[in-house]
Design a protein that fits this description.
By secondary structure, the protein is an alpha/beta fold. 46% of the residues lie in helices and 15% in strands. Among the domains are: 42-189, Rossmann fold (3-Layer(aba) Sandwich), CATH 3.40.50.10860; 198-362, NAD(P)-binding Rossmann-like Domain (Rossmann fold, 3-Layer(aba) Sandwich). It has a seven-stranded mixed β-sheet, sandwiched between helices. The chain has a five-stranded mixed β-sheet with strand order 1-2-4-3-5. α11 links the parallel β11 (331-333) and β12. α16 crosses α17. The structure holds nicotinamide-adenine-dinucleotide (NAD). The record marks 154 as: Important for catalysis. Substrate binds at residues 76, 100, 369. Residues 193-475 form the Glutamate/phenylalanine/leucine/valine/L-tryptophan dehydrogenase C-terminal domain.
Length: 478
């Protein structure tokens, strides 16, 4: 792999695709070619192998951690547990993290980790051994720490794995006050933060709501404004897909299709997301759900059913030159990283659609991970210090207004106005603010530069400009 010129390699696809998008957007910026090269390249690629005990013998596990950019510290990015993980994929995902953080103004560089296993083939105790040993390998090479590199969940990992990482890191660094800030996505009982689990999906739903709220853009692609009644298909019923579908339903959209790796289901009148989720939990499959009007053994057929919006939220490379012509949606909102190939994107726009790109659409997770990291460094939950003070001030104000006007509020009105914000409310409000502002910042770049054709190009132009400023301010030493 030629790290400095990945697009020249034959065997790279995903990282090559990310670099293609970068190169395209870089044309619309004014930066020195060397600086652009520095931004694009992966700074550190750590590939390692370690043994675990399996049965009566050993098994050697392949793993990676890639730190793409150090223009901000720490670097940040999830750890993927999948037998399909490879170096190219981890590099691509690390690069996307850099651009994603820049787009939503989260002050981190990008990183990503990968462990090449299918978690379903291991016992819980083996998974714990793998996770702890992976963490120790990172510690040995200084690839983890609250001010160095902070992992989080990704495909195949969740709160349980983050707990093991936090405990291993804290154990190996006794007395380090900020040790729990070395990883995010932890359970709340282990200094995680309210709202992190659902943050990526909530962010995807807000991103779509913002996009369909712009009348001018909807007119261009032949959709009405607003989410109410919009027909949506979601691929993947994991963390991102499940919560995206749940919040989109809550915002008034109809989830008409759900696709998992065992197949897909469809009902043009809408599916009950929670009921499908429970059905899958009980039977191991979304197929056989009584509320579906159509079933498909091949999950890819599910993507091609009639809808307004398609949310791929499983894995990369799902919409390609081969199937893009059969996609009926007008909007693709990328919950997953890299689900649309560059060729498919060009064809989709040519057919009159638009794409809300991964590096913005799924940035809700890293945004709330940033809040969790801040909470861990400050050692206090959001809202704890000021909530009662806020409530007392609100109460004084309500009493004063009632006194002046002579109008008494109902108990319900009083409670709503007086109540101070909980951690969850503050997190959700910070997340919503970030997603709304970032969407319009990207759209503004698109509108103000006629040569920038897509939201992805616009998002990348914005990211490159912000990262370039950081590198220029840092200077080069020695
Ligand atoms: P997850 O492991 O929780 O869920 C993934 C789901 O996709 C699983 O239910 C799996 O069965 C399903 N799936 C796998 N292959 C499929 C296929 N071919 N068709 C349909 N479904 C399939 O993973 P996740 O955390 O939800 O991550 C999904 C995507 O979102 C990944 O690309 C990840 O990088 C990205 N992402 C995740 C987060 C996060 O906070 N978890 C943040 C940003 C981006």
């Amino acid at each position: 792999m030629n790290i400095n010129n990945p697009t020249a390699d034959q065997d790279t696809h995903f990282f090559g695709d990310v670099c293609k998008n970068f190169d395209h957007a870089a044309q619309f910026t004014q930066h020195d070619a060397g600086l652009l090269d520095q931004i694009k390249s992966c700074n550190s690629v750590y590939r390692f192998r370690f043994p675990i005990r399996k049965g009566n013998g050993f098994e050697v596990i392949d793993a990676w951690r890639v730190e793409h950019s150090h223009h901000q510290s720490p670097t940040k990015g999830g750890i993927r547990y999948s037998e399909m993980v490879n170096e190219d994929e981890v590099m691509a995902l690390a690069a996307l993290m850099t651009y994603k953080c820049a787009i939503v103004n989260v002050p981190f560089g990008g990183a990503k980790g990968g462990i090449k296993i299918n978690p379903k083939n291991y016992t819980v105790s083996e998974l714990e051994n793998i996770t702890r040993r992976y963490t120790v390998e990172l510690i040995k090479k200084n690839f983890i720490g609250p001010s160095i590199d902070v992992p989080a969940p990704d495909y195949g990992s969740g709160e349980r794995e983050m707990s093991w990482i936090a405990d291993t890191y804290a154990t190996m660094n006794p007395g380090q006050l900020d040790a729990l800030g070395a990883v995010t996505g932890k359970p709340i009982a282990l200094h995680g933060i309210a709202g992190r689990r659902e943050a990526t999906g909530r962010g995807v739903a807000i991103a779509i709501r913002e996009c369909v709220g712009v009348a001018e853009d909807m007119q261009k692609i032949g959709l009405t404004t607003g989410l109410s009644g919009k027909k949506i298909i979601v691929q993947g019923l994991g963390n991102v897909g499940y919560y995206s579908a749940k919040f989109l339903s809550e915002f008034g959209a109809l989830i008409v299709g759900l696709c998992e790796f065992e197949g897909a289901i469809y009902n043009e009148d809408g599916l009950d997301v929670e009921a499908v989720f429970q059905h899958r939990k009980a039977t191991g499959s979304i197929l056989g759900y009584a509320g579906a009007k159509k079933e498909f053994k091949n999950t890819m057929d599910g993507l091609e059913q009639p809808c307004d919006i398609l949310v791929p939220a499983a894995l990369e490379n799902q919409i390609t030159a081969q199937n893009v012509g059969s996609i009926k949606a007008k909007i693709i909102a990328e919950g997953a990283n890299g689900p649309t190939s560059p060729e498919a994107e060009a064809a989709f726009y040519k057919n009159g659609g638009m794409i809300i790109p991964d590096m913005y659409a799924n940035a809700g997770g890293v945004t709330v991970s940033y809040f969790e990291w801040l909470k861990n460094l400050s050692h206090v939950a959001f809202g704890r210090i000021n909530r009662r003070f806020e409530e007392n001030s609100n109460l004084n104000l309500v009493n004063m207004v009632e006194g002046i006007t002579g109008v008494a509020l109902t108990p319900m009105q009083r409670t709503t106005i007086v109540k101070g914000a909980s951690e969850l409310e503050l997190v959700n409000s910070g997340l919503e603010d970030t997603m709304i502002r970032s969407y319009h910042e990207i759209r503004e770049i698109l509108k103000s530069n006629p040569k920038v054709e897509t939201l992805r190009n616009a998002a990348m132009v914005g990211a490159i400009n912000k990262i370039a400023v950081s590198y220029m301010n840092l200077g080069v030493w020695p």
